Amino acid sequence: MKFVDEYRDQAKAEALAQAIARITTKSWSIMEVCGGQTHSIVKYGIDELLPQAITLLHGPGCPVCVTPLELIDKALQIAARPEVIFCSFGDMLRVPGTGGDLFSVKAKGADVRIVYSPLDALTIARQNPGRQVVFFAVGFETTAPANAMAVFQANAQKIPNFSVLVSHVLVPPAMEAILGAPDNRTQGFLAAGHVCTVMGFEEYLPLAKKYHVPIVVTGFEPVDILQGIFKCVEQLEQGRAEVENQYARSVQRTGNRPAQALMAKVFRVVARKWRGVGEIPNSGFALQDEFAAYDAEARFGVAGYHVDEDSECIAGQVLRGVKKPQECPAFGTRCTPDRPLGATMVSSEGACAAYYQYRRHQQTSLAAGKRS
Amino acid sequence: MCLAVPGKILEVSGSDTTRTGTVSFGGISKEACLAFVPEAKVGDYVLVHAGFAISVVDEEEAAQTLEYFRQIGELGELEGKP
Question: Is the separation of the CB atoms in A105 and A136 below 8 Å?
Answer without folding.
Answer: no
